[in-house]
Amino acid sequence: MVSATVGTAVVSGLRHALLTGEIGADVRLSYSKLADKFGVSRIPVREAIQALVAEGLVVMVDGVPYSRRLSVLELQELFEMRMAVEPHLTQMALPQVGRAEIIQMSRYYEIMSDTTDVVEWLEANANFHATIYHQANRPMTIEHVDQLRKLADRYLYLHLAVIGNVEHLQVEHAAILGAAKAGDGQRINELTRTHLETSHEFIVRYLLANDESFA
């Protein structure tokens, strides 16, 4: 029996390797090599791969696991789904956002402003938005949004790690935080939509310019 701690560590480590591009897209995942990499048996590796299949980061092809690559159309569809849900979810949650949530969002905003670690930035970014979303009391919707975000984060990481340009994203985060403080539901809906549109364009432009296989 694999301990929960070992299993969680392997899932986290493999997710990190996929997110950062240490394991590229469309790469066949070897159970034995991953077991050696993490110093574990194949059982927690198999369980980790199953968990990441559920998240959409890994796909099974004829029973063989591969790291997932999104096409331009798939990435567009991903952001279309996010734009259909997240602005409304944010507006729905806002009446339940209180002082504690504003303080949390401000802390995550400061982390994003100060850190030079891309993974830490992405984690703070996810928590910044999730702080609002969770106040909507829509657990299934939030789970779906989180899965879509994880798929997008792989590509956002690649851009941020190379270019390191997050200033415009922070301007948008500041505006979202301001709307949350003001309790302006319509404004935060519009800002969230614009934020997603910017991120989509940000990622696609980079990939089209730098990844010949992205089509």
In short:
Residues 4-75 form the HTH gntR-type domain. The chain is mostly helical and 215 residues long.
Structural commentary:
- The chain has a two-stranded antiparallel ribbon.
- The protein is globular and about 55 Å long.
- 74% of the residues lie in helices and 4% in strands.
- The mean pLDDT is 89.
- It is built from nine helices and two strands.
- The chain folds into two domains: 6-67, Winged helix-like DNA-binding domain superfamily/Winged helix DNA-binding domain (Arc Repressor Mutant, subunit A); 72-213, Up-down Bundle (Four Helix Bundle (Hemerythrin (Met), subunit A)).
- The chain is mostly helical.
- Mass-distribution shape: globular
CATH topology of the largest domain: Four Helix Bundle (Hemerythrin (Met), subunit A)
Distance between the termini: 42 Å
* Number of strand elements: 2
In spatial order, strands of the major sheet run 1-2
What is the element string, with H for helices and E for strands? HHHEEHHHHHH
Q: The biggest beta sheet, please?
A: 2 strands, antiparallel
CATH class of the largest domain, please? Mainly Alpha
Give the key terms.
Arc Repressor Mutant, subunit A, globular, Four Helix Bundle (Hemerythrin (Met), subunit A), single chain, 215 residues, 2 domains
